[in-house]
Q: What sequence folds into this?
């Protein structure tokens, strides 16, 4: 018998022995190795931050002139721009990415399997180092990290914020068609931006279609707005321009909170510069509140400021007023 034939027989025997061991002595381990997507299905989604203490600082698909690109998620800002808020898994899934990424800082990427059988990946960026590890199965609302206020941790920013993006498809290490990182925060290409979902719209649509809920709702509670958009057009830097907004809430169960995005401030007093804040709260009387507030746009740099003013109350559908303007 030749040496080559001996080697072939030995290799075949080793392979057969390996298969026997796998299927007879350790079926559980073999099953884990062969199975995919063993984590729980994402039946509904929630925001990765608990309600209160933050506002929408930059909206999805906002075009940033400074970057010459679309924003591929929503940025959530702590009310004081520095509180390191806890971050939670938006839905059931498995952590596929965990660690430091240039421009993002410490980042968590979670793959989610929907009830329809399709997949999405959520991206949570600008965190502290103590993030949940790769390979961990997580449940909706599980703590996965904290927002970082340290530029050495959050990708170089001198303020705290959370980037929340939702990308279609299973997790992949493949690059985008233009060679860019698959889970980036910006892209100049509309075709790549179309692979991402508006997080707020996605949560509403998925929860509605799958019968889930991001929180209890009072069907009779309503917030009505005098307008859905405030357009400030072109405003000189550091020179505030003010517009009025009226809203009315009925059948409310709790306080009304109004939150202004980056570049905007709100007040109930038109001519008192010291009264303008990022957040206002109003207490309903017998479930009703009607207020006129003043929205000031004060750009600090030459850029477009396109985002949403948020009005919320427990049990009522959150309302958004689009605010836009440009600093010159």
A:
């Amino acid at each position: 018998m030749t040496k080559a034939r001996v080697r072939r027989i030995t290799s075949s025997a080793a392979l057969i022995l390996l298969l026997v061991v796998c299927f007879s002595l350790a079926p559980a381990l073999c099953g884990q190795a062969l199975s995919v997507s063993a984590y729980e299905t994402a039946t509904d989604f929630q925001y990765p931050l608990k309600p209160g203490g933050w506002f929408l600082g930059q909206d999805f698909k906002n075009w940033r002139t400074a970057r010459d690109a679309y924003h591929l998620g929503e940025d959530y800002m702590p009310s004081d721009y520095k509180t390191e808020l806890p971050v939670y898994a938006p839905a059931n899934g498995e952590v596929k990415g965990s660690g430091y990424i240039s421009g993002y800082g410490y980042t968590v990427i979670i793959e989610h399997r929907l009830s329809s059988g399709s997949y999405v990946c959520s991206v949570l960026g600008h965190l502290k180092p103590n993030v949940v590890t790769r390979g961990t199965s997580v449940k909706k609302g599980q703590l996965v990290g904290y927002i970082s206020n340290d530029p050495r941790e959050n990708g170089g920013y001198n303020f705290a914020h959370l980037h929340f993006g939702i990308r279609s498809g299973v997790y992949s290490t493949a690059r985008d068609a233009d060679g860019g990182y698959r889970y980036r925060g910006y892209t100049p290409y509309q075709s790549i931006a179309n692979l991402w979902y508006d997080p707020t719209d996605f949560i509403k649509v998925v929860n509605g279609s799958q019968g889930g809920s991001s929180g209890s709702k009072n069907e009779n509670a309503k917030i009505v707005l005098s307008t859905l958009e405030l357009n400030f057009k072109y405003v000189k830097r550091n020179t505030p321009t003010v517009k009025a907004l009226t809203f009315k809430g009925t059948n409310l169960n709790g306080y009304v909170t109004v939150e202004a995005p980056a570049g905007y401030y709100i007040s109930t007093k038109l001519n008192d510069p010291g009264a303008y804040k990022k957040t206002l709260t109003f207490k309903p009387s017998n479930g009703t509140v009607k207020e006129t507030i003043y929205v000031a746009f004060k750009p600090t740099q030459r850029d477009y400021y396109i985002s949403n003013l948020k009005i919320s109350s427990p049990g009522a559908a959150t309302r958004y007023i689009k605010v836009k303007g440009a600093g010159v």
